[in-house]
Amino acid sequence: MIGPAASKKPTVEPWAGPSILQLARFRGRSTGFTDTLVRMQKAIMQILKAGVLYFAFVFGAGFVLGAIRTLWVVPRIGTRKGELVEMPLMLVVTIVAARWIVLHFAVSSEALVRLGVGGIALGLMLVAEFGLALWVRGSSITQYLATRDPVSGTVYYILGVFAIMLLLVVRAGGV
After folding, report:
1. Distance in angstroms (rounded) separating the CA atoms of residues 172 and 168
2. Minimal CA–CA distance to 110: which of 62, 154, 167, 25?
3. 87: closest CA among 146, 155, 148, 147?
4. How far is 80 from 59, CA to CA, in rounded Å?
5. Which burial class, exposed, middle or buried, applies to 8 when counting CB atoms under 10 A from its CB (0-12, 13-18, 19+)?
6. Among 18, 68, 116, 174, which is 20 to 30 Å from 133 by CA?
7. What domain count does the chain have?
8. How far does Cα 166 stand from its chain's mean position?
9. What is the C-alpha separation between 68 and 82, in angstroms, rounded?
10. For residues 168 and 100, is the Cβ–Cβ distance under 8 A?
11. What's the per-residue H, E or C state across 90-126?
12. How far apart are CA 173 and CA 57, in angstroms?
């Protein structure tokens, strides 16, 4: 080939590797197979986006409420009561965020899909929670968990509710 078409080779960054679509085309599979792979890739990306956004909403609200609790509530009523006051607010935030994610992303009612979104969000939440806490406090995870209040600190052990909340909320159509 001569001309501009000869120089137009598909470029793949050396660090990225080929996409699923490029692999399917390379292997000479049928269009149906390629279409299925593209749909799967889009579904996976939607689950990732929903999980990251769900995490961002809840973590952002928790960060703001935690700052308010630490600066204004704890000095007045103490750590335990301050965390106990914050818990129902975070539950409401989690419910609202889960419902918004399900509606906005039209998340399938399949349990694996919703658990996938919740699992991604939970993983990010644990990394952020422990990473931020350990970085600020300069302690280990064991020390951090040991210093939690036995009553109000249980909220950290029931983060599973955060992960499964997407299963508990329903879309407007009842799905």
Report:
1. 13
2. 167
3. 155
4. 20
5. exposed
6. 116
7. 1
8. 11
9. 10
10. no
11. HHHHHHHHHHHHHHHCCCCCCHHHHHHHHHHHHHHHH
12. 24
Domain that holds residue 87: 46-168
Q: Distance between CA 140 and CA 5 in Å, rounded?
A: 58
Tens of pLDDT, residue by residue over 77-114, are: 999 999 999 999 999 999 999 999 999 988 888 999 99
| Residue (of 95, 118, 94, 93) closest to 107 by Cα position | 118
The two three-digit tokens of residue 163, written as one number? 């992960």
- Count how many Cα atoms sit within 13 Å of the Cα of residue 170 in the half-sphere of its side chain: 4
Structure tokens at 131: 């990473």
5 occurs within a structural domain: no
Prediction pTM value: 0.76
Q: Which of 22-26, 51-55, 70-74 has the lowest mean pLDDT?
A: 22-26
Tokens of 175: 């799905």
